[in-house]
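Fresh eyes needed here. Have a critical look at this protein's tokenised backbone.
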Amino acid sequence: MPDQHTREVKYLRLHALISTPLLLVLTFAAFRQQPQKAKFTEIDVERINVVEPNGMYRMVISNKPRSIGPIYKGKPFGYPGGTRPGIIFFNDEGTENGGLTFGGERGPDGKYRAGHHMSFDQFDQDQVVVLNYQDENGTRQLGLTFADRAPVNIFDLVQQRDSIMKMPEGPARTEALQKLQAPRDGAPLYAPRVYVGRDRTRASVLRLSDPMGRPRIRMIVDSAGSPSLEFLDDSGRVTTRLPELRR
């Protein structure tokens, strides 16, 4: 009997030695295969990264210190983070393509500054649809802008600019910057086409511009409530105005 009892104890020990790790592996695999879902009533967080399965950014929500800088195909460029609290969006290639940022504070002198900005970027470029509010202690401008941008890769453009800025100050650097900012195949790097909003003079404005970004039609209701409609030539001169100006 003692020999049989000993054999049974050895068998149980061997069974436990094999089954316990196997059970742990199966349990871990089950957790790995089933998506985890957590529910919170309230959460305090400084930054949330929404990512694809491969880790690529799709959206970043953050406070100011932990905010992200510009990203092109997963690679930082332009300037570091830490300046723009809000939400930044990314396209399928991991390139920033818009966002929502905001801020506002009152200084020691009692004066305040505030701003809100939501934009959508042209592919491989910068913002072309912009909803903006800027307020300098009551002198405010708010409106919606639609713009055109030349089909120039923003990453290459910034790399060229950074290289030029390393040059010593002088005519050569000035000329290189002017060349960098010049139109491409007749298209300016940036051309606002439509603006609708309220300007710093408290006038409501609708402004339509040509492909070079030059205003050609202005519809205005000024701060006193007086309306006007102006047509401009490509030099900015008013050619027709309704109602006509009294002389």
User: Anything to note?
Assistant: The radius of gyration is 30 Å.
